[in-house]
Amino acid sequence: MAGNDDEYIYDEASGEWLPASEAAAKAAAASAVHDSAGNVLVDGDAVTLIKDLKVKGAGQTLKQGTVIRSIRLTDNPEEIDCRHDTIKGLVLRTEFVRKKS
After folding, report:
1. The model's pTM
2. Rounded distance, CA 45 to CA 32, Å?
3. Which DSSP symbol is given to 75?
4. According to the model, what pLDDT value does residue 6 have?
5. Using CA atoms in the order 78, 92, 50, 52, what is the torsion angle rounded to 10 degrees?
6. Which one-letter DSSP state was computed for residue 56?
């Protein structure tokens, strides 16, 4: 049981009062970036495309199975910054990539 000195925060999603430490851990888990299979992505990971993607403005298609190395996370948990040999400033949606193991 939590001590009397603990701070509590109201969690609107669950409608419960949670200890501050538990609420912080829950928020950190929710802000994690996941690929299409649910794997957690971090800066520097390599990912593989799970479908062909037409790249707007480049007039080019990235093929399924293309490996993108050294991704960078953005402020948006649904997007990652990528580097590709032929396309500069590439941003991909996490729903179209799978972490390379």
Report:
1. 0.68
2. 14
3. S
4. 73
5. 140
6. T
Residue 12: the pLDDT is 80
Sign, CA torsion 40/44/47/52: positive
Cα–Cα distance measured from residue 29 to residue 12, given in angstroms and rounded to the nearest whole number = 16
Residue 63 phi, psi (nearest 5): -85, 150
What confidence score (pLDDT) does residue 65 get? 95
- Helix H or strand E encompassing 58: none
Give the position of tokens 């669950």: 14
Task: Give the tokens for residue 30.
Answer: 């929710």
**Are 53 and 96 contacting, i.e. CB atoms less than 8 angstroms apart?**
yes
Question: Which DSSP string do the residues of 56-78 spell out, in sequence order?
Answer: TTTTEEEPTT-EE-S-EE-SSTT
Q: What is the mean pLDDT of each run of 10 residues along the chain (101 residues)?
A: 68 82 70 89 94 88 93 92 87 94 79
What is the pLDDT at residue 30? 62
- 84 and 26 in contact (C-beta within 8 Å)? no
